[in-house]
Amino acid sequence: MNALQFLTPPLLPPRRLFAFPARSALTVVIAFASLSLSSFNTQVLAQTPTPPTPHAPPIKVIPSLNVPTTPKMVEGQVFIKYTESLIHAEDLVERRKKIIQAGNQLRSQLQFQNGTDLFIGEIRTYEKLGIQLLKLQPSESVQDAISKINQHPSLVEFAEPNYKVFPLYSAPPNDDQWVNGPISLWGMEKIGMKSAWELSNGKVSKNIIVAVLDTGIDYTHPDLVDPATSTSRMWQNSQEAGGSSGQDDDNNGIVDDVYGANFCTGTQPATGDPQEDQIQGYPGHGTIVAGVIGAIVNNGHHVAGVHRNANLMALKIMCAQPGAANELPTGDIASAMSAILYAIDKKAEVLNASWTIGNIKHSGLRVAIKLAGDNNALFVAAAGNTRDPQNNNDTSPMYPASYGNDGVANVMAVAGTMLTCGAGEGTVSNMGTCNNGSAPHEALYDGSSYGQTSVHIAAPGWRTISTAIIDSVDNPGGIAMATGTSTAAAHVSGCAALVQAARTAKPSSTPFSPKDLKALLMNNGENLSTLNGRVVNGRRLNCDAALRTQVKWSFWDWVGTWEFFSFSRGPRTPRE
Ligand SMILES: [Ca+2]
Ligand SMILES: [Ca+2]
Ligand SMILES: [Ca+2]
Q1: What is the pLDDT of residue 480?
Q2: Is the Cβ–Cβ distance between 72 and 355 less than 8 Å?
Q3: CB atoms < 10 A from the CB of 416, how many?
Q4: Which one, 35, 55, 172, 535, has the greatest CB density within 10 A?
Q5: Residue 154 CB partners (closer than 8 Å, separation 6+)
Q6: Which domains does the chain have, with CATH numbers?
Q7: In 3D, which of 356, 354, 368 has the Cα closest to residue 399?
């Protein structure tokens, strides 16, 4: 399997969204906490993320979509990395000139050898990487062309195909009863967000750019851009936002790229609109991932993201295919590489990749991710949703997650966890209990890829509730529930941004390197026996513990925590 795939099988949006019943234990405890705090500290009261308000009419049942089961190479295209010594130049214009010279040299040698020109022309050039994507003559097969090109090692370091990308989709269970239960925010609670949201409020106001390389983001969603509270969690390209419509104000080759860009344009240049496509019956993907990372906290509706001050950069690399109704969105590696270079150029500090190219160790994608690391960006990658027997990434690598085991230190691979019941105890009910009334335990999500040496951490990746494209027919409420390592990665991206924000908010502090940031999240994770042998040190993300290494903890913060009222865990010693 070597096609790029989504790692979240998106599930049915609930019929009634987020109707927390009055009997809900969670609601009761939050209300109690808020009430009790009002006499101590009104600021703390305001910090408690409000449960989403009930809204939305019934949701249409999602039909089955056609899922490609075999990898699809993009016909007629080939990547070439030219020999670095031939094209070396600091200046990108100069570098482009040298790339074209090397390309012409290769072209003439191939023509001499074969009697015809192999190529029609250039599709994209990645100057920083020294790579070109070229269009082949219709008569040439990709594999034949690659073997001909590889006969010129003095000019070429590698040549490889481009692959189509498409989501992994599984039939959604009907979970509407479950999401109305009191444990619908279980993942946020497990990683300590009840406390971390309080702790970060007012103390971690720094914005960190998180690039979401995905299907785009619905940047009109009121829990990402909320006119009522004048809050936006979308990143803005200041030159374009304050520039002229229809003009490329920052001269980066993309017109009006205000919130990010759309690279899912095939052989055409990127455009400035990264809005996620509406596909009938499909609740989307990028908007779900974005909401987990940074949906607006405490605006009284929808959900709350991990980093309350994230700047979400929408980099669309997968999109609806024209003429293919009810098909899942697809893209290609070429778009992913362009998006990574954009994120580097605009100084994103965390890149979220909730997709995979399967077991293809693509060199072009690898060098792009490595360059992001050289520019201090952490690349958080979903480990994969591959089921047995291919789900051990140590023996069956999944890229880009497995580049972390291949010398790319800024890659952080994330497995997903779920709540589960013991043998004979049935499944977890919407009230958060097993059949015999016992509490469920947390374990690896049954579809998650894992790896004792190749997967760095686990995070909640099952029944995650988040923002989704608002669609008047399919999903008027704008909330969906998703399962898969896509949402697990998003929890880690949000937390990485939050911790980096806390770190760099301190006077004269330097940002964590991607390697150090990754180590901090890993070392402060919570050890779960069910994860031993599954991820590097058997831990699941604990964002509260990670954040506390950076933020001082006052008495009033302590009084305001979930923990103070739950009595299940005592307050921890502040660490600086
Ligand atoms: Ca521009
Ligand atoms: Ca403009
Ligand atoms: Ca919200």
Answers
A1: 84
A2: no
A3: 33
A4: 535
A5: 83
A6: 5-68+172-416+442-562 (3.40.50.200), 75-165 (3.30.70.1510)
A7: 356
With tokens 């958080």, the residue in question is 380
- Surrounding residues of ion ligand 3, Cβ less than 5 A: 223, 296, 299, 302
Quick one: pLDDT at residue 90? 94
- Biggest alpha carbon distance in the chain? 86
Whether the per-residue pLDDT at 191 is higher than 70: the answer is: yes
Between CA 452 and CA 535 the distance in angstroms is 4
DSSP three-state, residue 214: strand
Pairing of β 156-165 and β 330-332: antiparallel
What is the Cα 442 distance to its own chain's centre?
22
Q: Could you tell me which of 106, 108, 45, 112 has the C-alpha nearest to residue 80? A: 106
pLDDT tops 70 at residue 321: yes
Distance 233 CA to ligand 2 centre (A): 20
User: Of the ligands numbered here, which is closest to the C-alpha atom of 346?
Assistant: 1
Residues 6+ apart with CB under 8 A from 285: 6, 8, 10, 167, 214, 215, 276, 318, 329, 354, 482, 486
CA distance 127 to 344: 13
CA–CA separation, 439 and 441 (whole Å): 7
* pLDDT score recorded for residue 574: 28
Q: Are 319 and 329 in contact (CB under 8 A)?
A: yes
Residue type, 374: D
Distance (angstroms) between ligand 1 centre and the Cα of 247 equals 7
Dump the DSSP string for 345-390. HTT-SEEEE-EE-BT---HHHHHHHHHHHHTT-EEEEE---PPTTS
DSSP 278: P
Q: How far is the CA of 272 from the centre of ligand 2 (A)?
A: 9
As given in the structure block, the two tokens for residue 202 are 């007012």
Tell me which amino acid residue 110 is: L
> Which ligand number lies closest to the CA of residue 185?
3
| pLDDT above 90 for 352 | yes
Amino acid at 564: F
pLDDT at 332 over 80: yes
Asked if pLDDT for residue 106 goes beyond 70, the answer is: yes
- Burial (CB count within 10 angstroms: exposed 0-12, middle 13-18, buried 19+), residue 572: middle
Ligand lying nearest the CA atom of residue 242: 2
